[in-house]
Amino acid sequence: EIVLVTGVQTCALPILRLKISDADVIAASMPFLSRMMSPKNLNLLPGGGVSGNCQVSGQQFIQKGPANLMTVHQIAGKPGLGFTNINTAGALAWQPGSASKSYTLVTLINQPDAAGRCDHFTVATTGAVAVSTPLRYFPDGVGTANKFISYGAGVTNPFSSVDRPSGDWAVLIADYDDYSRTTRLSVNSVEAFVESTRSTPSTVDPAAYVQIGYSGSSSSLRNSHVGDTYYFNDSLLRSPVNLPKLRALVAALKTEYGIA
């Protein structure tokens, strides 16, 4: 457990007590880590909804959508951020300025319904306008069936896609390099990535921010859940020197979440 003193006052010391995992320690040693969300450190509010702070920036999360929409459920013994109403637009967002043109996203996803739902797991927006979709899911009968999708720096084709694996949880690794305009996506491994290339660069601006879920559509988290999430503000895959620690991070998360 790590204790963070968030402010100094004459009468009180507001304190955040954070639960820290082995994966968190590894991520903290990696370059470009700029944002983090961990359901184990979110607070359930009395009237519904959640509150908490980014474990990297210290900034408070912003709830998008109805105040009582967000919650935390236990999924196979691990806490996951989810919704109380699966057909509602909403998200848990980092503060403006959290999105970057190039990035690596490492996130735990529980997607229990292979056939029935389109989900947006991570979206970067400027105001209410989506400018980048690092991760979503297409079910049966919708485009590329039973696939996790990354659009890299856009919200439309081209995209990279990987099959939805079996099991309660999966580690998704989405990387976008704006220098080469390359989108890479993998699940439960860093040994092979599916790649696609965009013809235009990222339009993310200094005011853009990252949402977990999507406040612009009822096809948000639906009945899925999001576990520990790490956002790096540059492409880790641009240099092979970053691969060993990325591999160690994914291995630690697989151990923690019981992924084969």
Task: Describe the structure in your own words.
The chain has 260 residues and is mainly β. The protein is built from two helices and 19 strands. It has helices at residues 22-28, 243-257, and strands at residues 2-5, 15-18, 33-37, 43-44, 50-51, 62-64, 70-75, 78-83, 90-93, 103-110, 119-126, 129-138, 147-150, 160-163, 170-177, 182-187, 194-197, 209-214, 225-232. The chain has a seven-stranded antiparallel β-sheet, with no helix packed on it. The longest helix is centred in the last third of the chain and has 15 residues, at 243-257.
Compile the SSE list and pairings.
Elements: E1 2-5, E2 15-18, H1 22-28, E3 33-37, E4 43-44, E5 50-51, E6 62-64, E7 70-75, E8 78-83, E9 90-93, E10 103-110, E11 119-126, E12 129-138, E13 147-150, E14 160-163, E15 170-177, E16 182-187, E17 194-197, E18 209-214, E19 225-232, H2 243-257
Antiparallel strand pairs: 1-2, 3-19, 4-5, 6-9, 7-8, 9-18, 10-15, 10-19, 11-12, 11-18, 12-13, 13-14, 15-16, 16-17
Helix pairs in contact: 1-2
Rg for CA atoms: 17 Å
Low-confidence stretches: 2-13
> Would you count the extended β strands for me?
19
**Structural class label:** mainly beta
Output mean pLDDT. 92
Count every helix, treating DSSP H or I runs of 4 or more residues as helices.
2
Any idea what the shape is?
globular
User: What does the largest sheet look like?
Assistant: 7 strands, antiparallel
Major β-sheet strand ordering: 6-9-18-11-12-13-14
Helix content: under 10%
How much strand?
35-45%
Question: What is the CA-CA span between the terminal residues?
Answer: 27 Å
**Secondary-structure element sequence?**
EEHEEEEEEEEEEEEEEEEEH
